[in-house]
Structures are given as structure tokens and as C-alpha cells.
Design a protein that fits this description.
The chain is 39% helix and 15% strand. An eight-stranded parallel barrel has the order 1-2-3-4-5-6-7-10, surrounded by five helices. The protein has a two-stranded antiparallel sheet with strand order 8-9. It is an alpha/beta fold and 306 residues long. It has a single domain (14-303), classed as Divalent-metal-dependent TIM barrel enzymes (TIM Barrel, Alpha-Beta Barrel). It comes from Streptomyces albus.
């Protein structure tokens, strides 16, 4: 007598999308990247409904033009992205707000609901040169927390967006220890987390455990996986993040870790609507490489129930 296979879970609280990053886009302009119109054509053809803006200036920054270009392809915008160095304190506030405001204005005009905030890198993405100490001082942690809360209030008041802070390799918010310290230091009503499953695994974290422990703080998901063999080499050699990506450390699901079905199911169990944006770091990559991967990834996520 055969044992019936369990039914695929219904993950109806997750809104699946993709991002320019999955097409090898890291910069507003770069000759190694596909043109913006090709990204929009292919992300729609691959079966995604939601997208992120990517680096400001890659997609058209005229809200009317971008609204027309996305609408005619059946696409909607979930979020914009900014980098910040708020651990440096009030001295960097004005410069930070200047770049945040332009991204938030465009995202808000496209009816997005979130702003993904990535802390600045502590070492150069290409050379591995240390730009500042790897660990923050107690005072810098206080600046980081206070600055994020201030940013969250102003972004919400002026643009109606919620910020979600993205733990990221080679930044000061990376490992479980640092992520938990940041969450414990910030107001949960103001500051949520963008849990990137690949970056968190890259830094040794367990996404399912974090969702179960801090579920009320999870405001957004980035879906990616890490190749464990390449990651072991990266750790052994101290390779910085940029070269690690070129080495292929972020891989196509379901070939890496963490396993995504348990992550998706844990997120579904939170009982709230969440964006789950595929964001496979692939800079640089051949122009014909992203689309087949994006299409296969979308089919894989559907097989998981999303």
C-alpha cells in the first residue's frame, strides 16, 4: 500500500517577485548589464508580477514613464533600495536623506509599499581593503539604531513607505548575533527586517529560526540560495562579497541552502502578507543567462505552493 504524498502547501500570503539583481544589475549604468527594457520584458515573460526598482537610475526615474512601462507588461513595484551609513551618526543625516528621498519619491509614485535599507560595507567589495573596523562600537550601534528609527519615521510620514532593513554580507548587520542585536535595539513598530535567505545563510544564520523567533519583525523577504561548497572556500580564504558572487556563491534554487520550502512555510505561518522577491546575485553575467534561471526559479516556487 503506497503512502499518499503530502499536498503542496498553499502559500497565499506570499507575493512573489523578482529584481534587477537577478539579471546581473548592480549599477545604474554598466556596459556589462542588460538594458532596462530587456529586464522588464524578461521578468514579465518569466512569470513574475512584482519587481523592485534596483539601483536608482537603472530603470527610468520619470514616474510617468516607468508607470506606463511596467503597466503595459503587467508589472507592479514592491520596493526601492537605498544604502546607508547611519552608524556614523548625525553628521551623515543630510546626505543620507538626500538619496533616500529621491528613491522613496519614485517608489511611492509607483505605489510601492517598502524601502529596502542596506547598511554600508565595512570592506571594499572588490579589493577586500578594510574601509572601517568590522565591528561597531557601542556608540556606533546607538547611532545605527537611532538613525534607522529616525529614517523610518520620516519615510513613513513623507512617503507612506515602511522601511525594511536588509542584513547583508560584509556589512555590520550580518550574522545572527548582529541581526538580533539590531532588532533588540530598535522599535519593532517602526523598523522591520528584509530577511534575505541567501545573505543570512552566507553569514551563518538560520532563516527558519529567525522567522519563528522574530516573526513580528519580518516585513519582507529576499529569496536566494548559497552554494555550500563555494561558501566554504569563500570563508576559508576570506574572499570579499563581490568576488564571491563572481565565483558563483549565490546559486539557482533548489541547488543550494537554505532549503526554501521550510522558509516559505514558516513565513506563511506568520499570517501576514509578505513580498517574497527572488534576488539572485549574479554580477556580472552573460546577457542570455538570467532569463532561463528566472523562469526555472518561478516554476520551482510554484511547485512549493508560492
Amino acid at each position: 500500500m503506497s503512502v499518499p504524498r503530502p499536498a503542496t502547501p498553499v502559500l497565499d500570503r506570499l507575493r512573489v517577485g523578482s529584481a534587477p539583481d537577478s539579471w546581473g544589475v548592480w549599477f545604474p549604468e554598466d556596459e556589462q548589464q542588460v538594458p532596462w527594457w530587456r529586464f522588464l520584458d524578461e521578468v514579465a515573460e518569466a512569470g513574475y508580477e512584482w519587481i523592485e526598482l534596483g539601483p536608482y537610475g537603472y530603470l527610468p526615474t520619470d514616474a510617468g514613464v516607468l508607470r506606463e512601462e511596467t503597466a503595459r507588461r503587467g508589472l507592479k513595484v514592491s520596493a526601492g533600495t537605498v544604502f546607508t551609513s547611519l552608524h556614523h551618526g548625525p553628521a551623515v543625516w543630510e546626505a543620507t536623506w538626500e538619496q533616500v528621498a529621491r528613491v522613496a519619491a519614485l517608489a511611492g509614485a509607483l505605489d510601492a509599499s517598502h524601502l529596502v535599507v542596506i547598511p554600508s560595507f565595512w570592506r571594499d567589495d572588490k579589493t577586500a581593503k578594510e574601509l572601517e573596523p568590522r565591528r561597531l562600537s557601542a556608540e556606533q550601534w546607538r547611532h545605527q539604531a537611532a538613525g534607522m528609527e529616525r529614517l523610518a519615521r520620516r519615510v513613513r510620514e513623507e512617503y507612506g513607505l515602511g522601511i525594511v532593513v536588509h542584513p547583508h554580507a560584509d556589512t555590520h548587520i550580518d550574522t545572527e548575533e548582529n541581526v538580533v542585536r539590531f532588532l533588540d535595539a530598535t522599535d519593532g513598530e517602526l523598523v522591520k527586517l528584509c530577511l534575505d535567505t541567501g545573505h543570512y545563510a552566507y553569514c551563518g544564520g538560520d532563516s527558519v529560526e529567525l522567522i519563528r523567533r522574530y516573526g513580528e519583525r519580518i516585513g519582507y523577504l529576499h529569496l536566494k540560495q548559497v552554494d555550500p561548497d563555494i561558501l566554504a572556500d569563500v570563508r576559508a580564504k576570506g574572499t570579499p562579497f563581490g568576488p564571491a558572487v563572481r565565483q558563483g556563491v549565490m546559486c539557482e534554487p533548489p541547488r543550494g541552502v537554505p532549503e526554501l520550502p521550510p522558509v516559505l512555510e514558516a513565513a506563511q505561518e506568520l499570517g501576514v502578507d509578505l513580498f517574497a522577491i527572488v534576488e539572485q546575485d549574479m554580477y556580472p553575467c552573460p546577457p542570455d543567462q538570467p532569463f532561463p534561471i528566472a523562469e526555472r526559479t518561478r516554476r520551482f516556487l510554484r511547485s512549493c505552493g508560492a
